[in-house]
Design brief:
Elements lengths: L1 H26 L6 E11 L4 E5 L3 E5 L5 E4 L2 E3 L9 E8 L5 E9 L7
Parallel strand pairs: 3-7, 4-7
Antiparallel strand pairs: 1-2, 1-6, 2-3, 4-5, 6-7
Amino acid sequence: MKRVLILAVTAFYLVSGAAAYCWENAFNEDPRIETVEGRVSNVDVQRSRITIKSVDTMTFLVPLNARVVQDIYDMKLSDVKAGDYVTIDYLDDPSGKHEAKTITVHYEKGEGV
């Protein structure tokens, strides 16, 4: 009886631990991702870069696999214009450069943010 109880408790902890791990990772793909929002001051399509003015002026590399969206619609970097209000999810690479993962364009400052 003791052995069955110990096995049942051990199985419960293993299953609940696995479920908690999956739940946490379902909402947080990469804990290193940071988010910033601000007004676009420059878009350089040739060099795949976007510069925004937030608290500071920040420039981001926009790789081909980065997602650019407005509302539910996918966009291209060339669709983003100076003056647009954006939210950028990004990672810092080892050299300290910002690499955009997702750029969300908002209709007006604060909408959907």
